[in-house]
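Sanity check

After download, print the first record. It should look like this:
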Amino acid sequence: MALIAKSYILPLFLLLAALPAGAQRKVSADVEVKTVNNGKLTTVTKSVYCTNNGRLVTLFRNPYTYYVVSNAKGEVQIYRPDTNEILPQTDKSLSSNTELVSLFMQGRIDDLGLGFFGYKVTATTRDDGYIKKTFTANDVQLPVVDIVYEDYLPIYCEYTAPDGKLLSKKYLSDYQRFGRFILPCRTTDILYGEKRDSSVTRILYKNVKVDVDDPNFNFEVPANAKTMPTPEAAK
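Expected structure tokens:
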């Protein structure tokens, strides 16, 4: 009986730890993004400031300094402090719901935010302690997504085109708990190109803080910021 109880308690504990808690009003983290593409390595460092109302402030630090303020609707403001210019956009793919910290704040470990883009579970399989869920969208042109879970936490994600071509893979690892907030502090993405080339991106989350005040949570684009000219307008 003790073994049976343990087998249920541990997954339940992990699941509860990943649920959004009322105390988690804000989460911040420093992020390092390294990408290898065509033999070249690029590094981007940034800090994210997520609040439970869906607001996300991203401060890019290197190689360039600028702010991106977004919400769950995909309303985005890109601000350059060096020129005091702003570029407003509306793009669902830039929604705050695409940031991993925001997703885990909301407890969206079940679909990693796919539901925001019209995806639904269409198949579930179990194999040697792992659960795999297949997600498809109403738009048949969108890729099919498989997510694999271990102890109810997503550890692998795969995108496949409608024609069966593998588009990308994502690995989520190094899960750490910060109070009741849990986050995979390392992700690795493999994006397959048209030929044999591919790009690999490793993202590390560091210095994660829960409900710790920081002025950047309340960052607002200055009212006197000038609208940034778009490439189309410059022609």
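If your output differs, re-run the checksum step. Summary of this record's structure: The first strand starts at residue 26 and ends at 37.
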